[in-house]
Amino acid sequence: MSFPIHRARRLRNSQTIRKMVQETQLRPEDLIYPMFVISGKGVRKKIPSMPECFQLSVDEAVKEAAKAHKLGIPAVLLFGIPKHKDDLASEAYSDKGVVQQAIRAIKKKVRNLVVITDVCLCEYMNHGHCGVVKKGRILNDPSLELLAKEALSHVRAGADIVAPSDMMDGRVAVIRDMLDAHDYTDIPIMSYSAKYASAFYSPFRDAADSVPQFGDRRTYQMDPPNRREAIKEVSLDIEEGADIVMVKPAMCYMDIISDIKDLFDVPVAAYNVSGEYSMVKAAAKMGWIDEKKVVMELLTSIKRSGADLIITYFALDAVKEL
Ligand code: PBG
Q1: pLDDT band, very low/low/confident/very high, at 157 (cuts 50, 70, 90)
Q2: 281 catalytically annotated
């Protein structure tokens, strides 16, 4: 394989040839659009740290979901911002909760759109942690029951897929048990399996109003320097019944996406998180990068690294380029 017999540039001669030998293709079906649902009516509240993202009341969320569906995006991922927070995350599993209302309304109006829900307690807890807290500690086992109740309540409202993001040990198994016990054996679980304790989540915590009131999430989310541990987390989740596994964040963790894609035979999702979104938006606003080109390169690279599905706030913009 040496020059001058071989010239790699031959296959880059024109846009047509480049397209013919293109190895990775991003498709609209690869994208999942996250949305934040808030109480009220006609509310479309800007999120300052995430330009062009909004907290939406149920009626507005329906419009936004319809827009996504029309553009060819197959699924949305819903996050709820409750009116009332307490130390048992009561609104997380209330039939009248804001996410439950949104699921029902979207499923009614936007029929073929897949509705995925984030199953976590942090938005609903007054202390902002993803589990039950006692004496300053985040307790694993008492949190499981609440998470299972939350997942069941989402599915009862009509969710097509549930996505636990709390990182408590054993939550996929209890959610699977709970769903099966209520005859929801066909509802898939998309588990946030390798979710790192990342500084890239801070814009999201403004968006979802879920900043921990003390400490941080390092006792439950993964330590960023660890690679092999991600394999352990994914194996455990698959054993417990996860149908899709997720790596989060995406940009700095493409080695993890790649490992997991190679080692396991379930679909891999990657979460292009809030901080990754806001960095691109900020640099584009300064005129330092071409936003459209950077976004397409970023999403294509996430797919190239092995992601079958990409959760991204750029979904509506990206799909227009495909
Ligand atoms: C809830 C949750 C978080 C994100 C998704 N689900 C925040 C966190 O763990 O602190 C982050 C999403 C993003 O940054 O875009 N636990």
Answers
A1: very high
A2: no
